[in-house]
Amino acid sequence: MHKVFVFPQETKDSHVLLRAQPGQPLQTLTLCLRSYTDLARPHGLFSYATRAQANEVLLFKPKPSAYEFHIGGKLVIFTIPLAAAPSQQHVCASWESATGIVQFWLDGRAWPRKGLQKGYRVGAEAAIVLGQDQDSFGGSFDAKQSFVGEISSVYLWDVVLSTSGVKAAMEDTPYEAPIFGWRNFPYRAVGEVYLKP
Fold it and tell me: Per-residue pLDDT averaged across 63-88, rounded?
């Protein structure tokens, strides 16, 4: 049975807190998740904050036709087609420090690569949150950036996935062992968030 986190309303505090962290700083990573929403306003999906940098790793949707992917406070924007009706979107983004290259996939399809933060290291001591955008370590949420809808199939790896690896993650059968993954998801729901079939 596939379950999803349901975020039923706009709030300044409801979120999912992940009880997992990488064991060491990251020089490569891939993030994947599935979301379903009809929000037209900006909203945070995945927020990974360190004490030094609130937007250490952030997947943020400023509008329905774009995704922002942040590393260490810098960002790249990927423009996507506007859907005629709300639809589930499976998104993955990867980054490697050696080149700074960012890869982005929407529903298993790769977008043109971009780059940022060559030579950077993502801090290991992190507060990791779904459904809000942290503006400080573990908090400072803004209701007007909160997520309303459904999130599932959340994974974080310390490697760059291939397109075939992304497609496997879409089916919740990843090849690579993640730092955390959907099969045994270590989380605590805070406020009005529900895990439902």
Answer: 93
